[in-house]
Amino acid sequence: MARPRKVVAVPEAPVVETAAQIKTVVSEQKPKSVSKAKPYFLGTTDDCPYWNLNLAGVTFHRETAELMAGKRGDDDILTQGPPVRGHLEMLTPEAIERIKKAAKTKVIRWNYPPRWEEVKNENTGRMERVFKGNGRIYSSSPRGPEAPQFVPQDGDEPIGKYIYCMDASTLDPTFVLGDRKNIPVKTVHEAMEDGTL
Fold this sequence. Notes:
Blueprint: H1 19-29, E1 38-44, E2 52-55, E3 58-61, E4 63-72, E5 75-85, E6 87-91, H2 93-105, E7 106-120, E8 127-139, E9 157-158, E10 163-167, H3 173-177, H4 188-194
């Protein structure tokens, strides 16, 4: 025995007769606010205790590598290019606001004092300056009644000091398209203080 079908009423489409009515119907169907995304150059600084971290749903990388076309015999393959600083990502104004809000509530607490050391690179034999530090990220925003309460301590530093997020359209294109090693970065903390983010 077949089950009875459920009848669903379909709303009737509006009757459109003039160009003005067409514009009205089309404008009513469009989303009310559509934010345009812009390219941003973002990443972690050299003295950040993490190579990659996620803040407000956006991942900040210390280094990334572009995929490049290559050949292996007769086959076309993709190979990993040389490492470049940070990465480019399209972000909306809403995403930027979320980053700024999250940067205000997150701190890095160092487990032992951060420092720079000269070490010998085993591959090249050259001396290199390397950052040594270990820290944890803590949030000062409440997460619920069962969550442990955040208690500020001396030495806590805003996470915004260790990440950058800069409008790529304001940067020199030769920096952005190259290896990006020499781009003068402004941290999120600095940009929020001077109002450029």
